[in-house]
Design a protein that fits this description.
The chain is mainly β and about 500 residues long.
Length: about 500
């Protein structure tokens, strides 16, 4: 067999699987076996240097492992990991402190556990994990000082989320060190240092961000990308054509700190009016928050520090009956007294289960005329219709005369009705199918028949309406004395709707 001169050994030792690959350019510079030889980038090779005895491990009769710790290109350590300890070798000698003591760090890894430790390094921190020990960090604080601490988890892991709506948990505040309370036995001393994940039960109180929303006022709260934002500034210039307005832009807010615009705030023209696109949103908080338990008072109370700001809806106190029922009477009639009741009309009280209306009050209103709106409807001033109390003044309108006056709420009942959404170009309201609407020409038209009819909006006058079925909804029936009031799905775009005639 002919012999060939191999001028370079820079390819090193080939894997056995490549030893037949003569088609590779690197084949001619590689070796089948390269034992006790160090190949050089220049092509040559040199014999591997011999070993040198630098010192003895702490326990020669126990398992010991060597781990590299590379702080920089010029500063490297060799970690001696033994039975429940770490020691450090630098330039062939054990690392010592200013008092000439060997630098040593105690660890929870004993015996043969050291061979199951997995590690990775980032800058001056070595992360270590073991199946039987909580994750640890080895930190280099200065040239001769190392410490080992628990790895500080920030976003998990968490246990399975609670799926029982009867189990409740609240925090006393949204930031800082807070008190956490539950209505079931949950906390144990073993949970100190662990994380709690708390999220909003429902988000219907905060509307989603949408592109092209017209004239949202400063202070408006919207949610986007599982985060909550507040509108903090609007365009300073809107142009001068027609009735100028502004609207939200096309870039969905996703930032998790500070402020950002959702559009360029440039001025455009729709042919009638000039408008600017883009407003500024400030990040408030996520739809969830995270806490770390610091102390446990008892099975239902603990102290925790907030790591990520909690949503406003999970802060407060545990729900308890706001008014206590008691039985009194004269033997023939039972009277239910509600402590703290102030309303003059019995129709303003309802039976609720878990915050939702269970039934409307009997004896009030005409059951054949359940004129009502979705109980999440809002008034032009931003108040929820369902939050009104007897005596509250609300803007109403007389269609025949166009006169707008403020009238007091006489009564409020609740229930469930089949509903439709009545929409115009500038607003919408969800109301019961039986709700009548007074037309400008004197006709009275029920909700399902309003398609193509003109209805009165709070801001833009009479506009053509379209109707969409919405199914059965929870509704409230406010009574202002058989007149129309303004309500809608948004406070800045409400529609005049009827309500029940009060019949005590």
């Amino acid at each position: 067999m002919p012999r060939f001169t191999q001028p370079s050994l820079s390819g090193g030792e080939l894997s056995p699987g490549l030893q037949g690959r003569i088609d590779l350019a690197r084949y001619a510079t590689s070796l089948k076996t390269c034992r006790n030889v160090i190949t050089k980038p220049t092509g040559g090779a040199a014999k591997r240097p011999g070993f040198m005895f630098r010192g003895q491990v702490k326990y020669s009769d126990r398992a010991t492992r060597i781990i590299p710790f590379i702080y920089s290109t010029t500063i490297n350590y060799l970690i001696e990991m033994g039975d429940a300890y770490l020691r450090f070798w630098v330039d062939g000698v054990l690392l010592r402190d200013g008092s000439n003591n060997i630098v040593e760090v105690a660890t929870p890894y004993i015996g043969s556990m050291i061979y199951d430790v997995r590690f990775t390094q980032s800058a001056d921190v070595l992360y270590m994990v073991h199946p039987s020990v909580a994750p640890k960090e080895l930190r280099r604080t200065d040239a001769t000082t190392f410490v080992i601490v628990d790895f500080a988890f920030k976003r998990g892991p968490f246990r399975q989320p609670n799926t029982n709506d009867a189990y409740l948990m609240v925090a006393s505040a949204t930031t800082g060190v807070v008190a956490v309370s539950t209505n079931v036995d949950v906390f144990t001393s073993a949970m100190i240092g662990s994380l709690i994940y708390m999220e909003e039960k429902e988000l219907r109180g905060i509307k989603p961000w949408v592109s092209g929303e017209k004239n949202p006022p400063v202070g408006t709260i919207r949610r986007s990308d599982e985060k909550v934002y507040k509108l903090v500034s609007i365009p300073s210039s809107l142009g001068g054509k027609g009735t100028p307005f502004y609207q939200t832009g096309g870039t969905r807010p996703v930032h998790d700190t500070g402020r950002a615009f959702d559009g360029p705030q440039d001025i455009k023209d729709d042919g009638v009016n000039s408008y600017a696109t883009g407003v500024e949103w400030e990040f408030l908080h996520n739809t969830f928050g995270i806490l770390r338990i610091q102390a446990v008072t008892d099975a239902r109370n603990a102290t925790a520090v907030v790591i990520e700001r909690l949503p406003d809806s999970v802060a407060g106190t545990l729900p308890t009956p706001g008014n206590t029922w008691s039985f009194t009477g004269n033997g023939s009639q039972t009277v239910f007294n509600i402590t703290g009741a102030t309303a003059l009309s019995e129709a303003s009280y309802t039976v609720s289960i878990a915050g939702s209306p269970a039934q409307s009050n009997p004896g009030y209103g005409d059951p054949d005329l359940p004129y009502c709106v979705d109980w999440n409807s809002v008034l032009p001033d931003g108040r929820l219709v369902r939050s009104l109390r007897v005596g509250d003044l609300v803007e109403c309108v007389d269609i025949a005369t166009g006169e707008r006056t403020y009238k007091p709420l006489l009564a409020m009942t609740f229930g469930y009705e089949d509903c439709c959404r009545v929409s115009t170009a500038h607003g919408s309201v969800v109301q019961s199918n039986s709700t009548p609407m007074d037309m400008k020409d004197g006709r009275v038209v029920k909700t399902p028949d309003l398609d193509g009819e003109q209805v009165l909006t709070h801001r833009d006058g009479f506009e053509v309406a379209s109707v969409m079925p919405m199914g059965r909804r929870a509704v409230c029936k406010p009574d202002f004395g058989n007149c129309m009031f303004f309500a809608g799905e948004r406070s800045d775009s409400t529609i005049a709707t009827h309500n029940i005639l009060y019949k005590p």
